[in-house]
Each structure stands twice: as structure tokens, then as C-alpha cells.
Design goal:
single chain, 403 residues, alpha+beta, DNA polymerase, domain 1, Dna Ligase, domain 1, 3 domains, five-stranded mixed beta sheet, five-stranded antiparallel beta sheet, 38% helix
């Protein structure tokens, strides 16, 4: 039986949510992200801004240079998580929905009789009408084709308005659809690999698919056969309803480089508490703790250590991260970015000892605090030492869950 898979992509999602809060923004060049004077970056930008050359992950200062009338919106204003959950609830038409980010998902609709174009059209209409959000769909016989089809379809609609596109590739036309596209459209082909391919005359996916096996083996080694299958539009991966979380981390990019130990330790504790709360929310613990440090010249290092048991208590995460920090931070050296993460995840565990009762008390207390923060906001309870220095506020704080 031929598979039927849709790829859903909410168009400029953060911007679309901001427009719901403030309709005056519609049609105007604006970006969601951090302030330029605090090294902010563009998290998302409107299509009017994209017409001026602005794109996501661009430094906000550069974006404002390209578009002097750019309106900058703090990324903390929109209720993105809530809107994402509403979208995913609305498209819950199959037991096989794989959400891959806050604004993207794959949906396996093989058990629905209607053609892909009809299913996509119906879902798009409902999201447009019920949630007032623009959304594009790509569809085909596998995830690779559905995703590339969606990216291609969106790229064909150049306007200040969201594309709200639907692009379906019929069964049997996968290789033909891919053939004229640039190799960078294919998963696994980055800019550097694209440059290497161009040097041997391979610029399109079709040329990649027809390249001699020996050439592909020289370029990709053991991955040569896999790359050729992708170039032909072959992808047998299932749509997975569940993803195994491999790591949870948080990091902060400072508005100004920090060089004092007190400031950096406060930030380290804050990040450890955020990671701990997210671990407990998923009923997970981790045995590998890592820190991330970025210096003023953008040089970045990560260092980690593995413990004998899986932890999720804030204090344990903090003390382990602090030990790594002291070992690898040259005292006084300015820090641009600081991060804390936990991996090797599984059910929480701890070393049995005379202090088991104390462990349970700490767990119960943290669970209660988590509940208060969940209900009233993360700042409802803060440590007293947080107020000792008001210049430690981070401009860009990033949460990460890797699967």
C-alpha cells in the first residue's frame, strides 16, 4: 500500500502569533527576537521583512541595517506554546503524528481514504479559519518528499503575505520532482558539502542521483548508498508518534560579556534550576552533565562529566556543573555564552544512603516549587542572591531538547 504523508509547517509562526496580539503588525516588516544592542538575533521575521533580505538566525543589528524601518518584537510576548498545542490538537486526525518542532509536524494519513490534496486543503482551511494562522503543507509517499515539497512550495510564493501553500507530489514522481532542485535542498547536504559537490560538477539532485558510485563513495564514504536513495526520493522512515529525548539543556547569551565569578555562578545556578525543572516535568534524570562556554571571540567549548547515577535535583546539577566550570574557566576571562545540559537520560536514580529521607524531602519540595512556577510563572520564587546584582540578566536564553 502506498504511503500518504503530510508535512505541516506554520508560516512565520512566531510572527503570526504576534499579529494575533497586535493586528497592526500585519503586512509590516517586523522581527521577533532580541535587541540589537544586546546581541539579539532574529528568531522569526515577517514576510515583508524577508522581502528586504532579513532571515531567521541573523544578528538583529544586521537585520536593522538591511531594513531600517524594521519593528523588533520581544520573543517573550507571544503565547507560542499554547497556539502550537491548539494546532496539534486540531490536526489530530491520525494516531501517527510526529511533531518535530513547535511549528512543524509529520502526519501519516494512510488510513484516510481521501486524496492527500483534499486532506491538506481541509486541514489548512480549519487552521486558517479556527486559529487564524497561516500554514503550508507538503505531501507525498514519504517524509523526505513531503518536507522538500513543502519547502519548495513555500519558496514559489514570494510576497509580503504568508505563502499558505499546498504542494503534493504524486506517487512515482519523486525522482522527477527532485531532479532539478539544488543539492542543498536534500537532507544531509550542507553548504560545505554543496561546495565540494559543485567542484565535481554536481549541482542538482538529479546529477547527484546519476553520479558514478565511485564518485559518491569518495565524497560520502559509507553514506554513499544512503545519499543516492535520498536523491532518488526513497525514504522508508516511519512517522513516529513518540520521540526519545536524548538531552535537555538551557543556555544564555549575555547582553554584555561577563567576567566576574559571582555573576557567572548565579547564571549557572539559574540554568541548573531550569534544566532540573524540565527534567522533573518529564520524570527524567540524567547521568552526564555538560557545560558550554563561549568566549568574546566566539570560540566555544563544551565539557562534560558522567556520574554513577541519574539525577534531576537542581542542587546536584548545579554542583556538578560548577565543578566543570571551575576546572575549565580561566578566572577573569570574559564569557559571552554559558550553558548547562544533561544527557544519558532515563528514570531518575540516586545512590542509596543514610540520607534517603532527605533525598525524598528535596524531591517533594522541588516538585511543589515546580507546580508553583508552572501555575504562577517562573519568577514567583527566586533565590535572594539573584537580587544582589541586577546586571546579570540574559538577553537571549535558549531552551533545547534534543531527540
Amino acid at each position: 500500500m502506498t504511503r500518504k504523508i503530510l508535512h505541516l509547517d506554520l508560516d512565520a509562526f512566531f510572527c503570526a502569533v504576534e499579529e494575533l496580539h497586535n493586528p497592526v503588525l500585519k503586512g509590516k516588516p517586523f522581527a521577533v527576537g532580541g535587541r540589537a544592542d544586546r546581541r539579539g538575533v532574529v528568531a522569526s521575521c515577517s514576510y515583508a521583512a524577508r522581502m528586504k533580505g532579513v532571515h531567521s538566525a541573523m544578528p538583529m543589528g544586521r537585520a536593522q541595517h538591511l531594513c531600517p524601518d524594521l519593528i523588533v518584537i520581544s520573543s517573550r510576548q507571544g503565547n507560542y506554546g499554547e497556539m502550537s498545542r491548539k494546532v496539534m490538537a486540531l490536526v489530530d486526525i491520525s494516531p501517527f503524528i510526529e511533531q518535530i518542532s513547535i511549528d512543524e509536524a509529520f502526519i501519516d494519513v494512510i488510513d484516510i481514504a481521501e486524496p492527500l490534496i483534499e486532506i491538506a486543503t481541509d486541514l489548512q482551511f480549519r487552521i486558517n479559519k479556527e486559529l487564524n494562522l497561516p500554514v503550508s503543507f507538503g505531501g507525498g509517499t514519504n517524509k523526505l518528499i513531503a518536507k522538500i515539497a513543502n519547502d519548495w512550495g513555500k519558496s514559489q510564493k514570494i510576497s509580503v503575505e504568508p505563502p499558505n501553500a499546498i504542494t503534493i507530489i504524486p506517487p512515482g514522481e519523486e525522482a522527477e520532482f527532485l531532479a532539478p532542485l539544488p543539492v542543498k535542498s536534500l537532507w544531509g547536504i550542507g553548504s560545505k558539502t554543496g561546495e565540494r559537490l559543485a567542484k565535481v560538477g554536481i549541482r542538482t539532485i538529479g546529477q547527484l542521483a546519476n553520479a558514478p558510485p565511485t564518485t559518491l563513495e569518495i565524497l560520502f564514504g559509507d553514506y554513499a548508498a544512503s545519499i543516492r536513495r535520498r536523491a532518488l526520493g526513497i525514504d522508508n522512515r516511519p512517522v513516529s508518534a513518540e520521540r526519545d529525548v536524548k538531552s535537555i539543556s538551557n543556555e544564555v547569551t549575555f547582553a554584555k560579556d561577563k567576567h566576574t565569578e559571582t555573576e557567572l555562578k548565579q547564571t549557572l545556578r539559574y540554568l541548573s534550576e531550569k534544566v532540573g525543572m524540565r527534567l522533573r516535568k518529564k520524570d527524567l534524570g540524567g547521568s552526564t552533565i555538560h557545560i558550554k562556554l563561549r568566549w568574546s571571540d566566539f570560540t566555544t567549548i563544551t565539557r562534560q562529566t558522567t556520574l554513577p547515577s541519574r539525577i534531576n535535583l537542581d542542587q546536584e546539577i548545579y554542583h556538578t556543573a560548577l565543578a566543570l566550570f571551575h576546572e575549565h574557566w580561566p578566572k577573569g576571562k570574559p564569557v559571552r555564552l554559558l550553558g548547562v545540559g544533561v544527557s544519558n537520560l532515563g528514570s531518575p536514580s540516586h545512590q542509596l544512603s543514610l540520607w534517603d529521607d532527605d533525598f525524598q524531602k528535596k524531591t517533594n519540595l522541588l516538585n511543589a516549587l515546580d507546580g508553583l512556577r508552572e501555575r504562577y510563572g517562573k519568577d514567583i520564587i527566586t533565590r535572594a542572591n539573584k537580587f544582589q546584582n541586577t546586571d546579570t540578566e540574559e538577553e537571549n536564553s535558549e531552551d533545547s531538547i534534543k531527540s
